[in-house]
Amino acid sequence: MTLPAAPLKETEPSKETTPVSRRRRSATLLAGCSLTALIALLALVSLVWLPFDTDDTSGGRLAGPGDGHLLGTDKLGRDLLTQLMTGARIAVQAGLGSVAIAALVGVTLGVLAAFAQGWLDDTLAAFLDILIAFPTLLLAMLVVAARSATLGSAILAIGLAQSAVVARLVRILVKRVLARDYITAARTSGTSWPRTVAAHILPNIWPTLVVNLALQFGLAVLAEAGLSYLGLGAPPPNASWGRMLQEAQATFTTAPAGALAPGILLVVLVVGVNLVADGLRDTLDPATRRRRT
Amino acid sequence: MSKNSRTRASLYGTATVATLALGLTACGGGSDGGSASAGTWDKNATVNIGSLYEPQNLDNTAGGGQGVTEALNGNVYEGLFKLTDDGKVEKLLAQNHEVSKDGLTYTFTLRDGVKFHSGKELTSADVKYSLEKVLAKDSQSARKSNLEVVKDIATPDAKTVKVTLSKKSISFVYNLSYVWIINSEAENLKTTEDGTGPYKLAKWTRGSALSLDRFAGYWGDAAANKKAVYHYYKDASALNNALLTNAVDVVTSEQSPDALEQFKSNKNYKVNDGDSTTKLLLAFNDKAKPFTDVKVRQAVSAAIDDKKLLESVWGGYGKLIGSMVPPTDPWYEDLTDVNAYDVTKAKKLLDEAGYAKGFSFTLDTPNYDPHPTAATFIKSQLAKVGITVKINTITPDEWYTKVYKNRDFTATLQEHVNDRDLVWYGNPDFYWGYDDKQVTQWVEQAEEASTTEEQTELLKKVNRKTAEDAASDWLYLYPQIVVASSKLSGYPLNGLNSQFYAYDIKKKG
Amino acid sequence: MGRYLLRRLAFLLVSLALASVVLFVLLRLLPGDPANALTSVGASPEQIAAARHSIGSDRPLPEQFTHWLGQLTSGDLGTSFVSSLPVGPEVTARLNVTVPLTLAAFVLAVLVAVPVGFVAAYKRRTWYGAVLSGISQLGIAVPVFWLGMILIAVFALNAGWLPSGGFPQDGWDAPAEAVRSLVLPVVTIALVMGASLIRYVRSATLDVLGSDYLRTARALGASFPRAMWRHGLRNASVPVISILGIELASTLLGAVVVESVYALPGLGSLLATGIAQHDYPVVQGVLFVSTLAVLLIGFAADLVQRIIDPRLRGRLSGGAR
Amino acid sequence: MTPRDTPPGPLLDVRGLTVRTDDGRTLVDDLSFTVGGGERLGLIGESGSGKSLTTLALLGLLPDGMTATGSVELAGTQIVGAPEKRLTAVRGRDAAVVFQEPLTALDPLMRMGRQIAEPLARRTGLKGRDLRTAVTDALVRVRLPEPDRIAHAFPHEISGGQRQRVALAMALACEPSLLIADEPTTALDVSVQAEMLDLLDTLVREREMAVLFVSHDLAVVAKVTDRVLVLKDGRAVEEGPVLDVVTAPKAGYTRALVAGARKLESALDLRSPR
């Protein structure tokens, strides 16, 4: 099962065979970065300043904009903008946390699996395949059931579920590198394994890995929103966007702002990181770089 | 049985919340027939009832849950007595009953001409079987402990049942209203039924709906509609959407005020504000520091503005209570003035208790609404008197293990759904650990009282004493909101203890 | 091929057996007491113990496991702790909702994504090619439950064209109603699934468009449509099929959220309930059936790929998935 | 190779061919050359010099994002700016290509026989058994052993040299007036390279086909061509008969190339006397 004929699900190998114009490429990256930065800014500002206290329920129930509430209030009279800002923080936290776990566990597992041979190799590959077919959300539900519904559990759960995806990718990438001659040369010349990994393997796989992790970030944000929507994410009163949407569902028609704003921000963040991933792939991925004239 | 007899348990119905905290909790409920006396109605109508509480199975002694009570109690199964929607106990299958002088022997005469859905005639053997089923070793009935006073059941003839108690129990007849009379020969009671009610089960599709058909051989007045279908939803929004799109005609119990605006402003719907028995409690562990100190409990109670909390959770709905007793219980007294909101007083009490600088405690908060909201609110209120609250969000399952079984908590939030549940304060082993010899004695005496007046008198004392001791902080009484299509009339408004009688519901054509 | 089939089937069975052990062990490692779901306030310790005994959760784990395996081999998925009803029929009933939902969404997504993905690749330099790619970018980023909320608000609450949720009690005996109640959920899943499929189809098409063999064919005089038909379609389908397999499997299992939004009595909602109540037999049953489905879908995808791609024929599990 | 109604001018007439990317980089700059009927021209330059793009521009197969200007007349047909339909008619018939990388140039999912049959059927209109026989003949002509086995094989099942022969067979199956060989031996083992060159040489000679031979390797080009054009950074730096260029290179760049090739030559003794 080396060198799959099929693309890895995670890295859509958009090999624009032709030289995409640099301008265009940087436009993608730029657009992605600005969208992501917008949300990151919200999250960062929320650390030092919020329009209202998060627990401040002094606003009127589902009030419209005004009275210091730029976007109005939610059903408990909390400021919507405040909630959106803390929500941004949770989303970014969820994304970063999950990806960190996925990277750590996934790369370790993937590298180990790549060195496996024979039936062990087949079994590991098959196991990862089965695991991947189970949606992140489902695995996360189990983890959350085992621990309790906190942001930490959600991040752990999502990160672990994603590490299977990362492990599979890394395994394939590493196998690809291992097949190259200079690795064989390094091995026969007696270079130690950790050295080989550090000196030859990681430098070769990191561009693809980084692009993939960026995509995983977006998926993690969506998964956290899904978990929160099901009541399994950051517990109330934390203003996770998913939870805000769940709460605003009942008042969708009467007070649409609360049911639209978190969704829009979610889309902005995920589109943003996906564009960043696309842009990065075009600039980093050796597969595409090689094809350029 | 003993002290705690007359309460029926069930914190949230029974099953620990079916879904992962989709925000559903159990509801409580009043009783008795709905509103309006419709002029003409469709006698062959199908009434679609929307609910959040699906039965786990159809046997209320095998963990059927709150949903089975809602769908089957009074509709499919009947007891010797029934609890009306306004909380009165009336005779149903019992034609008559006599109590011996010592209050230990109850003799019931059964109504004539009562038939089970299978066609068999009701006999005293069925009553004995049904009572024994509740008391059986593997019974998961929430009423089991209440009925354990039963020492002997005799059936002198086909129409007479004689029950002997081990000690007096004034709530015995009330408790009997929860005992379904089931055909002693019936089988597969988890998926089928054989009761005597005005409806028989047509079909139960798990995860979706349960439908009831009018029973032609019913002994009393026939149901006012031909078919009643309970549609089950896991999420309040989905349920409200169903009502808005006419997929259901009535919602048994709204769990948040969110959607009410759109129903109130629409003449096609009627929003009914009934009496509930569900109380939201900030339950202290009275055996854990610092809540061992009455003054600390009083201070916390006085530091929280219940009115504002109720307003923010329920909009204009719901009531304030000063104790465990809802207005529908016979021993109700308005005690909202006891430990009322007063920050100055709270500070003074804390000072007296030696906590002038405040303290901090962990609040175990179930992860579904309204608990987290209430916790947030309490946190911000108590901060004003120097008390720091650490909110620890837990699942219903954890709540049972950590709080209910292991008593490993300092304070918790929980909703208590049932009526007449003041008596738990007489049980020093209950999870909140309130232990007052006097109260325990009063509760025991009340249960063994000869007259309801005597019982009421004693429980009023319990009520006042627990309120003054701030045994818990009773934050508010939930509203019981039934929203129905304006075509409907005759539906229950209070849904006491989760019952929802469908047989009087009339639907205009 | 016959030998391959045998080996592949054996592999499938071994995987299933392994999965069932893992499942069982993992579930028992979860903290929480299934008896809690049966408990109510006022329940005495004896009553709790009786509940535990009646569901068998007080027995030693190996015994529980062999019991479960024994049931499994006779096709029985066990009995729910909470409802005391058999799990098998329950799962079957839920599959009646989830399988049509997933398959319909899948077919719709493929029907939309394949042409759109192709156009998005072929015409990527035109404005509508860019718009199509942009739409798929958006589609990937939209949370499925939010999309559901919006569709319900627009098509059920405002327009009143379709039900807002639920599934008829008579199920497929009321075909018109059943179909109506699945329209919005199917569209919801198909849009989200389609959006990501578009990207895969687009990228597979780009690979083909940039491939040397396509250039060879055209350099030797084949017209573009002819070359795409002869060479492009098959080559592009290999990666897409492997994605389709994964998408189908994960949608089947991942319908939880959509089922929740649309109040559908599907497999996902059964699982969610089971997890919340620590109802191991239900969770085990659902996950076991799901694992089986995942393995079978993987098997089918491997088989199809193997038929198309001769390079995979030397391997046990097609390199694809 | 029955000479078609040959137009008066040269078979291939390139004037001022310029290839630019959309973002304005010039990859081939004002290139002009001709190839007469039966003539063999070598196009030489290191990678990135624009030689491969030139071959693609000759057939109107430039990738997206690049445009050609100037004039390319192939057998009297103007290629630059021509509609796809006209290009399709010209490709294969007037000029066919053998690409550098035989593994990717062949459809990995299609048996060799069917791949050869495709252009063959287009030219001859043969079907069924006749077509199959023709395919076998085509394989035999490129000196492939076991032609039936090869016809039944997938690209990954045969060696690189065999694949390149199949690619050559496909190109020859079109019976083009001009064969464009784009680094046809670069991907092959050195030992196979010589055989391949020899085969190519023989086959085109037999058919009196014109050849445009593209390579970075002066030694290889010298073996099969009469005239060379040296490309650097998209510009022609030198043009002339092979012997002249090799023995007396004018441009500094060409001198470097020749020196490089000499070294190789002495090391491998690859070059056969012409």
From TrEMBL, chain A:
Q: In its UniProt record, which GO terms are filed under biological process?
A: transmembrane transport
From the record, give the transmembrane residue ranges: 29-52, 90-116, 123-145, 151-170, 209-232, 252-277
Task: List the InterPro entries hit by this protein, alphabetically.
Answer: BP-dependent_transpt_permease (IPR050366), MetI-like (IPR000515), MetI-like_sf (IPR035906)
Q: What superkingdom heads the lineage?
A: Bacteria
Q: Which GO terms describe its cellular component?
A: plasma membrane
Locate the region Disordered: 1-23
Location comes to: Cell membrane
Residue intervals of the ABC transmembrane type-1 domain: 88-277
Membrane disposition = Multi-pass membrane protein
Pfam families registered for this protein in UniProt: BPD_transp_1
UniProt cross-references to Gene3D superfamilies, sorted A to Z:
MetI-like (1.10.3720.10)
Q: Please provide the record's keywords in A-Z order.
A: Cell membrane, Membrane, Transmembrane, Transmembrane helix, Transport
Q: What is its main location?
A: membrane
Against PANTHER family, the record matches this protein to:
OLIGOPEPTIDE TRANSPORT SYSTEM PERMEASE PROTEIN APPC, PEPTIDE ABC TRANSPORTER PERMEASE PROTEIN
Family per record? Belongs to the binding-protein-dependent transport system permease family.
Q: What is this protein called?
A: ABC transporter permease
Natural source organism = Streptomyces dioscori
Lineage, top ranks: Bacteria, Bacillati, Actinomycetota, Actinomycetes, Kitasatosporales
Automatic annotation (TrEMBL), chain B:
Q: Tell me the compartments it is located in.
A: Cell membrane
UniProt membrane topology term: Lipid-anchor
Q: What are the boundaries of the signal sequence?
A: 1-26
Any one GO MF annotation of this record: peptide transmembrane transporter activity
Q: Which GO terms describe its cellular component?
A: ATP-binding cassette (ABC) transporter complex; periplasmic space
Q: Name one GO biological process term.
A: peptide transport
**What stretches pass through the bilayer?**
none
Top-rank taxon of the source lineage equals Bacteria
- Give the Solute-binding protein family domain ranges: 88-419
Q: Which UniProt keywords apply?
A: Signal
Q: Which InterPro entries match?
A: Peptide/Ni-bd, SBP_5, SBP_5_CS, SBP_5_dom
PROSITE patterns per record = PROKAR_LIPOPROTEIN (PS51257), SBP_BACTERIAL_5 (PS01040)
Annotated Pfam families: SBP_bac_5
Please tell me where this protein is predominantly located. membrane
List, alphabetically, the PANTHER family matched. Answer: D,D-DIPEPTIDE-BINDING PERIPLASMIC PROTEIN DDPA-RELATED, PERIPLASMIC BINDING COMPONENT OF ABC TRANSPORTER
Q: Which family does it belong to?
A: Belongs to the bacterial solute-binding protein 5 family.
Spell out the protein name for this chain.
ABC transporter substrate-binding protein
Q: Which organism is it from?
A: Streptomyces dioscori
Automatic annotation (TrEMBL), chain C:
Topology within the bilayer = Multi-pass membrane protein
Gene Ontology terms: cellular component = plasma membrane
Stored CDD domains: TM_PBP2 (cd06261)
Q: Which segments cross the bilayer?
A: 101-122, 134-162, 182-201, 236-262, 282-304
Main location class? membrane
Q: Where is it located?
A: Cell membrane
Q: Which GO terms describe its biological process?
A: transmembrane transport
Q: What keywords were assigned to this record?
A: Cell membrane, Membrane, Transmembrane, Transmembrane helix, Transport
**UniProt KW Protease keyword:** no
The ABC transmembrane type-1 domain covers which part of the protein? 95-305
Query: Mind telling me which PANTHER family this protein's record contains?
Result: DIPEPTIDE TRANSPORT SYSTEM PERMEASE PROTEIN DPPB-RELATED
Protein family: Belongs to the binding-protein-dependent transport system permease family.
Q: What name is this protein filed under?
A: ABC transporter permease
Organism, by scientific name, is Streptomyces dioscori
Automatic annotation (TrEMBL), chain D:
Q: Which UniProt keywords apply?
A: ATP-binding, Cell membrane, Membrane, Nucleotide-binding, Transport
Please tell me whether the keyword Kinase is annotated for this protein. Answer: no
Recorded superkingdom: Bacteria
Question: Any idea where the ABC transporter domain is?
Answer: 12-258
**GO molecular-function annotation terms?**
ATP binding; ATP hydrolysis activity
Q: Where in the cell is it found?
A: Cell membrane
Under SMART domains, the record lists: AAA (SM00382)
Q: Which family does it belong to?
A: Belongs to the ABC transporter superfamily.
Name of the featured protein: ABC transporter ATP-binding protein
UniProt xrefs under PROSITE patterns: ABC_TRANSPORTER_1, ABC_TRANSPORTER_2
Q: Which GO terms describe its cellular component?
A: plasma membrane
Species per Swiss-Prot/TrEMBL record: Streptomyces dioscori
